[in-house]
Amino acid sequence: MILNNTVELSDKLNTLAQEEYVFTKDELAALSPYQTQHVKHFGHYELDLQTVPQPITDDLLFEIIIPDNPLLLLGTETSATG
Protein backbone atom coordinates (compact mmCIF):
# COMPACT_ATOMS: atom_id res chain seq x y z
CA MET A 1 0.00 0.00 0.00
CA ILE A 2 2.78 2.42 0.83
CA LEU A 3 4.46 1.82 -2.52
CA ASN A 4 1.21 2.48 -4.36
CA ASN A 5 0.59 5.63 -2.33
CA THR A 6 4.13 6.87 -3.05
CA VAL A 7 3.69 6.35 -6.78
CA GLU A 8 0.28 8.07 -6.74
CA LEU A 9 1.55 11.04 -4.69
CA SER A 10 4.55 11.51 -6.96
CA ASP A 11 2.37 11.38 -10.05
CA LYS A 12 -0.04 13.98 -8.70
CA LEU A 13 2.77 16.27 -7.52
CA ASN A 14 4.45 16.08 -10.93
CA THR A 15 1.14 16.85 -12.65
CA LEU A 16 0.60 19.91 -10.47
CA ALA A 17 4.20 21.05 -11.03
CA GLN A 18 3.68 20.81 -14.81
CA GLU A 19 0.70 23.11 -14.31
CA GLU A 20 3.18 25.55 -12.71
CA TYR A 21 2.02 25.03 -9.13
CA VAL A 22 4.83 25.91 -6.72
CA PHE A 23 4.90 23.82 -3.56
CA THR A 24 6.05 25.12 -0.23
CA LYS A 25 8.38 23.08 1.90
CA ASP A 26 5.65 22.80 4.55
CA GLU A 27 3.11 21.44 2.05
CA LEU A 28 5.49 18.72 0.96
CA ALA A 29 6.50 17.93 4.55
CA ALA A 30 2.84 17.35 5.44
CA LEU A 31 2.44 14.56 2.88
CA SER A 32 2.97 10.93 3.77
CA PRO A 33 2.33 7.70 1.90
CA TYR A 34 1.81 5.92 5.23
CA GLN A 35 -1.87 6.03 6.07
CA THR A 36 -3.42 4.61 9.20
CA GLN A 37 -7.00 5.77 8.76
CA HIS A 38 -9.58 4.11 6.53
CA VAL A 39 -7.36 1.10 5.91
CA LYS A 40 -8.69 -2.42 6.24
CA HIS A 41 -5.63 -4.14 7.67
CA PHE A 42 -7.19 -7.55 7.16
CA GLY A 43 -9.57 -6.46 4.41
CA HIS A 44 -10.34 -8.19 1.15
CA TYR A 45 -8.06 -6.97 -1.61
CA GLU A 46 -8.20 -8.27 -5.16
CA LEU A 47 -4.90 -8.59 -6.97
CA ASP A 48 -4.70 -8.78 -10.74
CA LEU A 49 -1.63 -10.92 -11.32
CA GLN A 50 -2.18 -11.07 -15.08
CA THR A 51 -1.70 -7.37 -15.83
CA VAL A 52 1.86 -6.10 -16.06
CA PRO A 53 2.11 -2.81 -14.12
CA GLN A 54 3.57 0.34 -15.61
CA PRO A 55 7.22 1.02 -14.73
CA ILE A 56 7.56 2.93 -11.49
CA THR A 57 8.67 6.50 -12.05
CA ASP A 58 8.20 8.00 -8.62
CA ASP A 59 10.92 10.61 -9.07
CA LEU A 60 9.78 14.15 -8.51
CA LEU A 61 10.39 16.08 -11.71
CA PHE A 62 10.56 19.49 -10.10
CA GLU A 63 13.03 21.29 -7.90
CA ILE A 64 12.16 22.11 -4.32
CA ILE A 65 13.33 25.66 -3.76
CA ILE A 66 14.05 26.68 -0.20
CA PRO A 67 13.99 30.47 0.17
CA ASP A 68 17.00 32.41 1.47
CA ASN A 69 14.94 33.44 4.49
CA PRO A 70 12.46 30.64 5.33
CA LEU A 71 10.95 32.76 8.10
CA LEU A 72 9.33 34.93 5.42
CA LEU A 73 7.02 32.00 4.59
CA LEU A 74 5.86 31.93 8.20
CA GLY A 75 5.49 35.70 8.50
CA THR A 76 7.82 35.71 11.50
CA GLU A 77 10.85 37.47 10.07
CA THR A 78 12.84 39.28 12.73
CA SER A 79 15.60 41.73 12.13
CA ALA A 80 19.15 40.75 13.00
CA THR A 81 19.63 43.99 14.94
CA GLY A 82 16.94 43.10 17.44
Q: What this model shows, in words?
A:
- The chain has helices at residues 2-18, 25-29, 71-74.
- The chain is mostly helical and 82 residues long.
- The chain is flat.
- The chain has one domain.
- Helices cover 32% and strands 0% of the residues.
Give the structure's gist in a few sentences.
With 82 residues, this protein is mostly helical. Helix content is 32%, strand content 0%. The chain contains three helices and no strands.
The Rg value, from CA coordinates, equals 19 Å
Share of β-strand residues: under 5%
Count of DSSP strands: 0
**What would the principal axes of the Cα set say about the shape?**
flat
Helical coverage, percent range: 25-40%
How many structural units, i.e. domains? 1
What's the rounded overall pLDDT mean? 76
Descriptive tags:
single chain, 82 residues, mainly alpha, 3 helices, 32% helix, flat
SSE blueprint and pairings:
Elements: H1 2-18, H2 25-29, H3 71-74
